[in-house]
Design goal:
globular; alpha/beta; 5 helices; Alpha/beta knot; about 20% strand; 5 strands; about 40% helix
Length: about 160
């Protein structure tokens, strides 16, 4: 199985880039991983919220294939312990999914076109984080999931 992460905007903070790079390198030991940072929508600040969500969602839809298993990061999504998230991963892998795609949206989230194709909505926390910070947290959790599935010591 391959993992793809699609996110709006670039990771700009050097410390986050460094941390993200560390975890992405570790994850490659377990599965192929593609991390795609898409350009921000032009003139985003001047667009109405719904139009911005629609344009951002179009960027995601252009990268998603019908066979992808879509996991949307959303503040209203289901929260998991790391162990339960590992169980979810195992279930997806057992179904023979070839590409698990994580979506990290913009500040206002996603429009209904993304909601319709999403298989799972998850929240990494009830706390609010920047979109750059959530990338680091997601990469660490993906790494943690694989260490749990492989009975490695990292989780403890």
């Amino acid at each position: 199985m391959k993992i793809t992460v699609l996110s709006i905007g670039k990771t700009k903070e050097p410390f986050l880039k460094e941390g993200l790079g560390i975890y992405l390198e570790k994850i490659k030991r377990y599965c192929p991983l593609e991390w795609i940072e898409m350009e921000d929508v032009k003139n985003a600040a001047s667009l109405p919220k719904e139009e911005l969500k629609r344009k951002e969602s179009k960027l995601f839809l252009d990268k998603i294939k019908p066979t992808d298993y879509i996991i949307m990061l959303d503040e209203h999504g289901k929260e998991f312990s790391s162990t339960k998230l590992a169980n979810e991963f195992q279930g997806v892998m057992n179904r023979g999914v070839s590409n698990m795609v994580f979506l990290i949206g913009g500040a206002f989230g996603f429009d209904e076109s993304i909601e319709k194709i999403t298989q799972k909505k998850i929240a990494l926390s009830q706390l609010t984080f920047t979109h750059q910070m959530i990338r680091l947290l997601l990469s660490e959790q993906i790494y943690r999931v694989f260490t749990i599935l492989n009975n490695e010591k990292y989780h403890h």
